[in-house]
Fold this protein.
Amino acid sequence: MNLLSKTLRNIYCAFSKTARFLNNTRLFDNFSFKNFRSLCQRSNILTVNPRTQIITKGEVADKFYLILKGHVKVFLTNDKNEETVLARLVEGDYFGEQALLSGEKQKRNANVTALTKTKLLTVSYNFLKKALTQNEKVNDYLQQTNKNKLVDHLKHHTPIDSDTLYDAFKDLDGQVITGHMDDIIFNKGDQSDSVYFIIDGSVHITLSKTDSVELTKGQIFGELGVLRNSPRAGAATFKNEGKLLKIPDIIFTNLYESVPELQDFVAAIQRIYNVPSRGFVSVNMGTLENLPAIKTTFDIKNHVITALHTINNEIFNMHIENIKPDRIITYEPDISISREIGLQGNNIVAIKSSGEWDSLGHACGLLLDNNPISQSIIDLFVSEGKLSAEEEFTHNRTICYCMKVSSDTILKCISDGVNTAEKIGQTIGAGRVCGGCIPRIKVLLGQQSWLLATMAFVKKIGEHASLFRVWKQGKVFTEALPGQFINIRFLIDGNWVERSYTVVSKNEKKNYYDIAIKLEEKGYVTPWLFKQDDEIIVRISKPEGHFTLPKSIKREIVFFAAGIGITPAEAFLHQLEKSNWNREFFLDYSVHSKSDSYFYDELKKAADDESHNFHTDLHVTSEERRVNEDDVLKMVKRHPDADYYICGGKEYAQMVLNTLKKAGIPDDRIKVEYFKVQELE
């Protein structure tokens, strides 16, 4: 815009409120004065009352909206008329541009409703479309904004399904390619430069002479080579006439790094690929317990075997079709862990599990290979939930349990030039979920130094839990931020066994760490530890983890904790007491029984002290119902602007997380840490 045009615009804005508002959005900075004046003259003011629906999904787009005053929400509804809020927009924001950018007579892809009395400025589709053809910079800006909103759209779909993926991918500069039966998509060893989404038809992936996978409509493939920056591990061909969306590697990588839910989807696919494959395998979408799931079908020796793994939850089911077990054995040590195997004779014919199970792949291998198990292994499963003896630091052992990444995979990554734990996480996903494996990754990198220290019992903090102290004479430890954990290696029967525990110290001198440990009676480490009368020698890592308080606390804190997941909240409270904070801290604490309410007397005392801004609510689930979505929503209604922290078992934490997202709490105000029963690894 030249000086004359700018001067004329400033004069015009002095006399027109509409012109001032449009000018302040900076969206139309590159319009000439003539076009800008036409825009102002062709704009209309629309005032709507609260709860008025402004846009309905599916209607033809004819206007672009800018908010002069008020608030609106952008949302979707499912078949049960349940809402998923995608965004809350305020004064200065705009909406309705996505349909205008996509072509003639596009339909709206979301609903918009006024939350307050709202004043809108509307611009007609036809005028704005004509103006955009003359102003490339504005058009480019809106196109980029459109892509950013697609990322937000994905973030609010938990879990992601194939329709959601396609809606996002189709607008991200993808190329549609078609093919006929046996047409080659890529060969083994080719450069991994694209990810593919199957719009229609089926694709055959050949991994080796004996292993192959069939993928169908709604699946993605080629993502592992792109994310790992490695050549294609197999060949891909069209099984029949089909259509694919080819997404460039850089676009997919940027989207993957921006959207945790897409990472969950890819992780689910990786977990299914990790199920030991035998012969011909097909993979497509399915459901398990009414949740979207990756469905894998094996065709082995005239038997069809089906495996289902939910995308965003640790729920798994595998069974041989048309074969019923004659007995079922179960292992349920905790509300977050459930394992079940169906036996016909001594052969496994069905597997069900929820929660973490690190040796699930081994169990699947036994079923797929039709290998019988001995009575001693059956007894081991009943008592400890395992189908093999305790695994220690062996060749190609699993390092990252969340992403199922082995030591050999990490070492291969290091040999390719990846030299930090953070870059390893970006390349193959290890360490990006809970972070508990980062010290082990650093050992493989040669960066992690384990410190010999002394450990001893301090006091009981509950019927089944105790406080332990770790120290080294004359040693000043690295300060643990509230919520961080340390990894501890115990020497048991000649083997070093590793576990992670949150630091709860009130230690000004930094010469020890206090940690809370729950006794798992069927476990491996804690029954041994709780029997030790004397001090023991352990190895410890430096504090790790990102589940921490910010340096500057600007909002209220709401903390949802379950069971031993209370330990970070205890650490937070210690820190806040030292800092004389002036914000409110609300703790919602769930336990199975009162005897499991660790630190509760101390927390209750702090809550009763009027000089503290601390409040707590205890739920004993054996005496009352569990915390549910309604309870979480009530908390959000009372504290809409708080920062939210969640620590507990996978099922509990995922329920709270999903509810907070549905309520519109932004991702940057939610931190979650999944607590798993390490004794069952």
Remarks:
- The chain has 20 helices and 36 strands.
- The radius of gyration is 28 Å.
- Confidence is low (pLDDT under 50) at residues 146-160, 390-395.
